Amino acid sequence: MDYSTSLLRLTFLALGAALVLIVARSAFRLPLAIDAPAASFLHGAGGCTRFSPWACRSPRTEKSPPRRPSHESDVPRHPLDPLTVTEISRARDLLRAHPPFASAPSALAVHALALDEPDKPAVRRWRKGVHALPPRRAVAVVRFQGESHVLAVDLAAGKVAPLPVPASGYPTMTMDEQNSLCAAPFGDPAFNATIRRRGVRLDDVACLPISPGWYGPAEDGGRRLIKSQCYSTEGTANFYMRPIEGLTVLVDMDTGKVVHISDRGAGIPIPAAKNTDYRGAANDDDDGTDRFGYQTVRAPSMEPAPEGPGFQIEDGHTVRWAGWEFHLKADARAGLVVSGATVQDPDTGARREVMYKGMASELFVPYMDPTEAWYFKTYMDAGEYGFGLQAMPLVPLNDCPRHARYMDGVFVAADGRPYVRENMICVFERYAGDIAWRHSESPITGMDIRESRPKVTLVARMAASVANYDYIVDWEFQTDGLIRIKVGLSGILMVKGTPYSHMNQVRQNEEMHGTLLSENVIGVIHDHYVTFRLDMDVDGADNSFVRVEMARQDTAPGESPRRSYLKATRHIASTEKDARVRLKLYEPAEFHVINPTKKTRVGNPVGYKVVPAGTAGSLLDPEDPPQKRGAFTNNQIWVTPYNKSEEWAGGLFVYQSKGEDTLATWSERDRPIENKDLVLWYTLGFHHIPCQEDFPIMPTVSSSFDLKPVNFFESNPILKQRPTMEKDLPVCAATA
Amino acid sequence: MDYSTSLLRLTFLALGAALVLIVARSAFRLPLAIDAPAASFLHGAGGCTRFSPWACRSPRTEKSPPRRPSHESDVPRHPLDPLTVTEISRARDLLRAHPPFASAPSALAVHALALDEPDKPAVRRWRKGVHALPPRRAVAVVRFQGESHVLAVDLAAGKVAPLPVPASGYPTMTMDEQNSLCAAPFGDPAFNATIRRRGVRLDDVACLPISPGWYGPAEDGGRRLIKSQCYSTEGTANFYMRPIEGLTVLVDMDTGKVVHISDRGAGIPIPAAKNTDYRGAANDDDDGTDRFGYQTVRAPSMEPAPEGPGFQIEDGHTVRWAGWEFHLKADARAGLVVSGATVQDPDTGARREVMYKGMASELFVPYMDPTEAWYFKTYMDAGEYGFGLQAMPLVPLNDCPRHARYMDGVFVAADGRPYVRENMICVFERYAGDIAWRHSESPITGMDIRESRPKVTLVARMAASVANYDYIVDWEFQTDGLIRIKVGLSGILMVKGTPYSHMNQVRQNEEMHGTLLSENVIGVIHDHYVTFRLDMDVDGADNSFVRVEMARQDTAPGESPRRSYLKATRHIASTEKDARVRLKLYEPAEFHVINPTKKTRVGNPVGYKVVPAGTAGSLLDPEDPPQKRGAFTNNQIWVTPYNKSEEWAGGLFVYQSKGEDTLATWSERDRPIENKDLVLWYTLGFHHIPCQEDFPIMPTVSSSFDLKPVNFFESNPILKQRPTMEKDLPVCAATA
């Protein structure tokens, strides 16, 4: 090795190290650390650990920081409240003292540490002010010396006990890992050399940690792996539009070492930075005027509300509005969790159960390009990256309206220390100008009737930014008992570099795997699936699943001038396989979760139905490795008997999972589900063929499904809603 | 005939006549007549005619009537402006003077009188202030002495010329007919006797005119027929919930005479009035308090807007907001018509064509009960009843938000006189708390980015009450170029009387044709289809239709670790049959209308795509008479070459039509559609199995579809939208 090569390597290593520091430092800006006094309850050692950049920053010195609720003194007040800062610290101490971790506690990496929710009967029984909280327990997923562990932590008794570990796969990456793995390629001289050969400065390079899927033991080699792909940040914050195409760096996640570099796209230019930045500040070089008068939007409904919001959040998590009451919390993996949703019966005033727990359980995002640098992109965002971990603070006035209230998340760094994700969830009342119900009489009846009622709803929202993509998840509660669950897609496409700058350069029938969005940029076709776990308890835990099938019925000769009509037939699903549904437009059905033991006055079983809207189904070969791992998307609807351990549709460990432990495998057991405590699963899907309007950042595309009362109430529960009168509305005068 | 029978008959006749008078008088309350000064331009005779209750009421004497825009002095200012009051009066004079009508002008019944829109090239060329208006013409559909006529009326030249008359079917009923036919059964002693036998007082009876469909010449007898079904109004304004079941009165519409009475349900009780009234005033006997705190709704966005709305309506019909400009008008048959929709290009400022004309063309609402009193209920609400005629004045603050602006309709009574339908359309800016686009950077990239933009849209709305049902139609324009067309269903179910008061009385497998909603009330299963005619002109009149089909592509052995991916293939439809689409979840596609001669900078054809959301397809036998008439619902998507005469998907005359002249028959001609001026048709469908929550009035159920730019803009057109800052929002103090 000659001197100049050594020097070069040394230089690159130094640059790489500098980049690590830069990345690490800038990461400090974001999550809110527990401020200085936290030291008193953060029982671990003082200084930084390699894991927890967020727990060790210096006290705030910003001028007039906004007043934040303190989480240091949080205490649990509801059985489902997430672990508090104090509880996390206590769990951390217990884990670090647990053999064999006690031998080297700084080598312990906490991948998940969350409330082990008390048993469902205890939670359903619990009443505030009447019962004490059930004992607080946590469940932890950790890595230690190359092994995964799952542990039960009894916070009161101070005990830690091992739980079974899944047969395949690895835990969700920690944020610290994702952070440090961004820098891993820079430690490899060959990587730095190829970057240089492409004419890119190393400090203009940003790499993303991309989960590799699982494609057999030969590729896997029994190791925990990540594939790094890199982009040029030169000239734009939207580096996603500047891929260094064809370069994939395989890194061993446990050692941080580069295992392999695949470098195939040397001839592909890096797309230009021009017109890619989306930040308001970046567009300040614009002349500042709104040339065509529509880049500044305002609406009357952004106005002040002198009376303030009409909902309450009690004890930090219990939301009350209109007839609804539910528990709302942030979760590192699921994002936003709605529990214990009950609605008040307008006739009796009784509080009635609807849903024990609802959340996004897993996502599946396969890209549709089988080539070397793309085939593995088949993300499971919740289990691989943490859907909640990636939910950044919401932007007031833009992500949520003026009168929203915000809720923080308390999460756990890799070293087990708590940190606060500010403003992760918002809650607001929504009035979109819609009509709750109406009727006018036509003049032909001679009745002068004009009755109409405005629709106001309550929304709980989070927005997760899983690297480039942004997912907006809304839980919207209506006064008529309907719950709408909506997923919006925005953010930035994952794009592919290409030599082409115009479609006339592309050969007839050449496979592009996407759309040419701009010069040298292809937006690659992909799907999104979001699978929701909906533990329905309709007027009690034991429910049944009914398919109300609609089919053409032909009339008998002479029976009627009509030849045909649509007939509805009810089928109660007795076992899991009976309750697998692939939607078909011309074989329509309604899907009810009923309580077979509770009837309305005229004898219909009370129920809620899941109402699909626009959706998509996966077309991949069921035996394709990604589809086996994502087999929970094989149907739009599944029903399973309640099982506390079946929470994550892709399995507890989905990272490099083989698909051995998914909703599809559980359902294959075909357990009885009639008049049982059951869980409904619904998958919302999108096919996305990108178009130029998605460049450089995508206008939001949304879809939703509803949980809707069906013979749950005796009659329209908002019949007596009062009309809005002019006198009910505040009169304001602009001040100053 | 003995004396007592004669007396009884006489009494019934007198009662019937009284009822006619009551119905007619009360009908006077609703539509706004042209006020007293109108007499000066209403060129016809002074007093009431049998047709026009609305044109002859006495001058207003209400205290402080709201200030309404005067329509007497309206003049057309845009080629597509609807006929003005003056023009309608002129057309009426011309028609009444036209032989043979001149012989008996009072026998002339005007069923439709509307603008004959100028030829499309002339309208597309026209510029305000540059060109004079094209000559104003009208098209009239009239009945005279038992015959239908279609006539072209040249307003300037004062000429009337006959046009071809459809081979089958009859014109849309006039409101006057619908009004007078409500009373027709009361002229028949046998009807009155059966009502009496059922224990109902005659003045508690209200009858609805129900279009009979068409079930062969034997049933038809070459006559224009209506089927009247009746309800008890005793104790409720919601008489729809009190059917006098099984009683169907067949009336000859031209003579007003009862032809046949079918009376089969004598044993079926009339459901009770209790709990059926939905009017706020009817619930005043409630204790007035909001017992459970959710029957009074308010939201911050109902607040005042000191700055007022951000859109303009110029010359009464041209709406301008953000980048959008379009012409908006009320139409007696289609309801709400959007024309000449153009959007401004954010890069060039150029105004670009999107859609020449969009409207609801026809509805099809088949009920799913083949029995005697129900089989014929297969409504086509636009062509039979007039979707616009049935759109009543909107209720401020409840149907539309506080800051909405309203637009009136000017329609034509049966005697040809104009009348005003107040507040038929509203226009408002909508801010629902949604996000136009967003991206946050994860801490792993070290970039502290939080960019988000709120979504504000513009809605044009109408709500048609076709007897019991209410249809809310929204055209929503987004700043990113998307148009969402949404249909909401509310109002009151069409229900069936039944002896059952509890489901335990119903035999296993007994066909109910619906759901027991309350004692003695079945909500009958039905479908709704709304077919929209969308004359797309994407950057010019000549466009092509492209199906971008997504299908599984298997990889070759050894090609990739992936076995499969989703591949998109573009198919340009050459003729109409190529462009018929029945949606399938597992055979997905995108549906683009492109301009094949206009390309983006990188060479993609500019386009708009139609994006279905939740919908339903008709399951009826294609040879079933109603489905033949409603054959335009056989596909979700059709494309036809532009033809001015193909506006109404069920044909010009759908009343008792045989299905000879529908979109399906036009499409069968299989005309070329590639690079032609083409029209896109989309049908939005709903299956409705009623549930108890729909009683006594239905919470709104909605579905929608989108017209969305696809490579129409070079990039995201709202990239430069400014974020909302606190300082941008008004600060208000509540006054007094």
TrEMBL record, chains A, B:
Keywords: Copper, Disulfide bond, Metal-binding, Oxidoreductase, TPQ. Its EC number is 1.4.3.-. Topaquinone (TPQ) is generated by copper-dependent autoxidation of a specific tyrosyl residue. The active site is at 381 (proton acceptor), 469 (schiff-base intermediate with substrate). Residues 78-161 form the Copper amine oxidase N2-terminal domain. Residues 305-718 form the Copper amine oxidase catalytic domain. It is an enzyme of class 1 (oxidoreductase). PANTHER family: AMINE OXIDASE, COPPER AMINE OXIDASE. This is Amine oxidase. It comes from Triticum urartu.
